[in-house]
């Protein structure tokens, strides 16, 4: 399964109804947390996310609504007896912020916590693990900020069992065929791998654009994505305020989605001034039909 | 009004039902926040605490369940346009923790934030403002930890209007009488203040014992308090675990309350292993009858 579960869809000022930004990307048995606003650990409990499967945390930038819940989560994982390692990718000062708080509490984590600092402006692959590959790219915000692109590449080729049997390849060898190996028959002749398998399906891709002003420079990262998340802090009538604050509107997110020919658009990071979210869809769908609200507790398949 | 409103009564691992430690002490128009676990700002919103009247924040120690919500609250007050000054009293490293996070977000607070570091082991008066006086004292915990004693002293003397009129003192002078001044009549004779007023009522006192192992050394701070808060992380059957972890049981808190002859005991900081809190009362009330659970959202008069 390759999917995104929304834990928070609100912008900076938290409300009792909506929570600050946090998402869980599920890549089969591996879970990634993307941003971690205050209270994320309770959202994880509420939506029964399997904490033990959480392996990577990506923090887009150091505005509080994207990371103030991180230290509490790290602490709780420790209290709950976690021993599996955990890696955090984020802006460099985050490491000191975490360490200072652990030191002040005289807390020694019982699990291995590694930190990968992201250099402002950097783009490129930052993680390859099993079927998952993650890249980061800079977005234009008031402080250094990163988007993340999650790619799930099935590495095994698709077996064509009838063909394999026709070449008298024993079933015990099928998994090697899926790994791309040829088969050598007893008479020494070779069955080429691509006679009995098909290439793996193309990688699926989820792109998380974090906080950003409207920026067509993002298109190169978005092009053809299966699912794209873009912030829509404001509706169109406040597009000037959006630009001033390095945020975006629903119209802008939909325009990028259309230009990038993504398959689906998720919108979130709504200003707490909005109690109704319907108008965000009303503004975006005429421009990009397959738009969905990043509703808390909902899982979207990539 | 002199009262305590409970915002959180749980210990370190947060649950969906109970929140980490936070209390609001109301002293007429001034509000003090005592500890500030993750999510406190939402509890403040939920229970309609007037944020604009919040003037002082006291942090007992740097375990996360007592302060991880502070940076989020400070940030939200700023986003909401606060201009009134705010003072934080707490262990020294807290100042750097806050400043580092403000700097990383390039946030300049629009209100004056002052920080008063508490030296490990220090006891004494730390604040005098209007009718409020606050002292701190050390408690015995795994890391440096402070309790706080809040005293509300009505400074005005009680006027006896019949007596004042009998001495022909004009009503316009009554407030000066309440401030303790004598009255000089036209014929030059003096009406002594204590002929027409009574001393102010004795100060009321709320003592917050923060996190602590069972420690009779606390009695000197508790003696005769009108309301005392003591943690009861565990029930008696786990008193060994309590001691190992520098926490207390309900029996221990009630024993201290009885020995200190306080008027009322509030208990909280319950381990998240307990879903029912009734047994805490069953254990403490046979030892100290006037015990109450520090229930979230409830206000206790001092």
From TrEMBL, chains A, B:
<keyword id="KW-0862">Zinc</keyword>
<feature type="binding site">
    <location>
        <position position="66"/>
    </location>
    <ligand>
        <name>Zn(2+) 2</name>
    </ligand>
</feature>
<dbReference type="InterPro" id="IPR036866">
    <property type="entry name" value="RibonucZ/Hydroxyglut_hydro"/>
</dbReference>
<dbReference type="InterPro" id="IPR013471">
    <property type="entry name" value="RNase_Z/BN"/>
</dbReference>
<dbReference type="GO" id="GO:0008270">
    <property type="term" value="F:zinc ion binding"/>
</dbReference>
<feature type="binding site">
    <location>
        <position position="269"/>
    </location>
    <ligand>
        <name>Zn(2+) 2</name>
    </ligand>
</feature>
<keyword id="KW-0378">Hydrolase</keyword>
<protein>
    <recommendedName>
        <fullName>Ribonuclease Z</fullName>
        <ecNumber>3.1.26.11</ecNumber>
    </recommendedName>
</protein>
<dbReference type="Pfam" id="PF23023">
    <property type="entry name" value="Anti-Pycsar_Apyc1"/>
</dbReference>
<keyword id="KW-0540">Nuclease</keyword>
<feature type="binding site">
    <location>
        <position position="63"/>
    </location>
    <ligand>
        <name>Zn(2+) 1</name>
    </ligand>
</feature>
<dbReference type="GO" id="GO:0042781">
    <property type="term" value="F:3'-tRNA processing endoribonuclease activity"/>
</dbReference>
<comment type="subunit">
    <text>Homodimer.</text>
</comment>
<feature type="active site" description="Proton acceptor">
    <location>
        <position position="65"/>
    </location>
</feature>
<keyword id="KW-0255">Endonuclease</keyword>
<feature type="binding site">
    <location>
        <position position="141"/>
    </location>
    <ligand>
        <name>Zn(2+) 1</name>
    </ligand>
</feature>
<keyword id="KW-0479">Metal-binding</keyword>
<keyword id="KW-0819">tRNA processing</keyword>
<comment type="similarity">
    <text>Belongs to the RNase Z family.</text>
</comment>
<feature type="binding site">
    <location>
        <position position="211"/>
    </location>
    <ligand>
        <name>Zn(2+) 2</name>
    </ligand>
</feature>
<feature type="binding site">
    <location>
        <position position="211"/>
    </location>
    <ligand>
        <name>Zn(2+) 1</name>
    </ligand>
</feature>
<feature type="binding site">
    <location>
        <position position="61"/>
    </location>
    <ligand>
        <name>Zn(2+) 1</name>
    </ligand>
</feature>
<feature type="binding site">
    <location>
        <position position="65"/>
    </location>
    <ligand>
        <name>Zn(2+) 2</name>
    </ligand>
</feature>
<comment type="function">
    <text>Zinc phosphodiesterase, which displays some tRNA 3'-processing endonuclease activity. Probably involved in tRNA maturation, by removing a 3'-trailer from precursor tRNA.</text>
</comment>
């Amino acid at each position: 399964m390759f999917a995104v579960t929304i834990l928070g869809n609100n912008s900076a000022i938290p409300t009792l109804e909506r929570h600050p930004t946090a998402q869980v990307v599920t890549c089969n048995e591996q879970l990634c947390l993307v941003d971690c606003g205050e209270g994320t650990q309770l959202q994880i409990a509420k939506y029964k996310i399997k904490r033990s499967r959480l392996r990577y945390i990506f923090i887009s930038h150091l505005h509080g609504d994207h990371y103030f819940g991180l230290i509490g989560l790290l602490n709780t994982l420790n209290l709950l007896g976690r021993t599996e390692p955990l890696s955090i990718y984020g802006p460099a000062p985050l490491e000191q912020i975490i360490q200072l708080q652990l030191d002040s509490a005289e807390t020694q984590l019982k699990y291995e916590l590694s930190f990968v600092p992201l250099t402002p402006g950097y783009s490129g692959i930052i993680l390859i693990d099993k079927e998952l590959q993650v890249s980061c790219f800079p977005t234009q915000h008031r402080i250094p900020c990163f988007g993340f692109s999650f790619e799930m590449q099935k590495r095994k080729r698709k077996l064509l069992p009838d063909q394999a049997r026709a070449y008298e390849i024993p079933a015990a060898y099928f998994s090697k065929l899926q790994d791309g190996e040829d088969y050598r028959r007893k008479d020494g002749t070779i069955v080429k791998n691509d006679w009995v398998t098909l290439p793996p399906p193309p990688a699926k891709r989820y792109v998380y654009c974090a906080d950003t002003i409207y920026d067509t420079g993002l298109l190169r990262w978005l092009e053809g994505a299966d699912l794209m998340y873009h912030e829509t802090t404001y509706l169109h009538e406040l597009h000037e305020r959006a630009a001033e604050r390095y945020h975006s509107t629903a119209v802008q997110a939909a325009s990028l989605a259309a230009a990038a020919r993504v398959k689906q658009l998720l919108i979130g990071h709504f200003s707490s001034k909005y109690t109704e979210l319907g108008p965000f869809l009303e503004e975006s769908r005429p421009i990009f039909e397959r738009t969905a609200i990043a509703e808390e507790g909902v899982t979207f398949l990539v």
